[in-house]
């Protein structure tokens, strides 16, 4: 098998469908491990398999280009939001930066921004029934991500849990907000094209 130096091009999801026995009834090897961050760093993962996986260079550059464009769109959106200039929001941003450090992402800002906006719509000082009405009638409550994730029903809301539910709804709306800006169009190239190169790392040049 090593002498034959097998190599394939397949889709990201098709890596495990390859016959790694090469037609042999007595010999086979484990399929390669596919890194969950392959579309970010294109680094092959070592495993018990002699095979590794990488995107073709041109495809990876295309993925990076789309990711960069979407990241820039999100940064531009956040820069334009007036809440970052508001005294009540600034401590929230500073606390977020201190907690997350190098792990801070655009999604973190979107979540905090969405929670802040929802808190403005539904002040904590309101009576419970009013908060419940405003929450369940809000576009955030009716958002696709909220409706398709575990959450309390309207009947299950109470004075004890409604504030936590407001925070949850705000967080999920933040994800929805980010997805509207960063549409992850690079996933089409990353998942649906035969651009993943499967090869024996020690036998083939990169």
Mean pLDDT: 91
Query: Biggest β-sheet, characterized?
Result: 3 strands, antiparallel
Order of helices and strands: EHEHHHHHHHE
Task: Provide the low-confidence segments as ranges.
Answer: none
Shape call? elongated
Strand order of the largest sheet: 1-3-2
Beta-strand segment tally: 3
Radius of gyration: 24 Å
Q: Label the structural class.
A: mainly alpha
What distance separates the N and C termini? 19 Å
Tell me the number of helical segments per DSSP (H or I, 4 or more residues long).
Answer: 8
The level of helicity is 40-55%
Q: What share of the residues does DSSP label as strand, in percent?
A: 5-15%
What report would you give on this structure?
With 206 residues, the chain is mostly helical. The protein has a domain at 82-181. It is 46% helix and 7% strand. The chain has 8 helices and 3 strands. The protein has helices at residues 38-41, 57-79, 90-100, 106-121, 128-136, 144-147, 162-181, 186-192, and strands at 7-10, 51-55, 196-200. Strands 1-3-2 form a 3-stranded antiparallel beta sheet. Helix 2 runs antiparallel to helix 8 and helix 4 crosses helix 7. The longest helix is centred in the first third of the chain and has 23 residues, at 57-79. The two termini are 19 Å apart.
């Amino acid at each position: 098998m090593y002498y034959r130096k097998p190599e394939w091009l397949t889709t990201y999801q098709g890596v495990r469908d390859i016959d790694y026995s090469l037609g042999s009834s007595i010999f086979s090897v484990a399929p390669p491990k596919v890194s969950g961050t392959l579309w970010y760093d294109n680094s092959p993962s070592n495993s018990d398999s002699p095979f590794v996986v990488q995107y073709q260079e041109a495809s990876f550059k295309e993925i990076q280009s789309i990711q960069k464009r979407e990241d820039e769109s999100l940064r531009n959106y956040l820069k334009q939001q007036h809440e970052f200039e508001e005294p009540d929001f600034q401590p929230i941003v500073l606390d977020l930066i201190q907690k997350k450090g190098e792990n801070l992402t655009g999604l973190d800002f979107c979540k905090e921004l969405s929670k802040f906006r929802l808190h403005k719509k539904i002040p904590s000082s309101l009576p419970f029934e009013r908060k419940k009405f405003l929450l369940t009638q809000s576009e955030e409550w009716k958002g696709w991500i909220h409706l398709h994730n575990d959450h309390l029903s309207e009947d299950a809301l109470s004075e004890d849990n409604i504030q936590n539910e407001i925070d949850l709804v705000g967080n999920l709306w933040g994800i929805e907000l980010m997805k509207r800006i960063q549409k992850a169009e690079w996933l089409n190239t990353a998942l649906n094209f035969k651009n993943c190169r499967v090869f024996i790392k020690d036998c083939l040049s990169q």
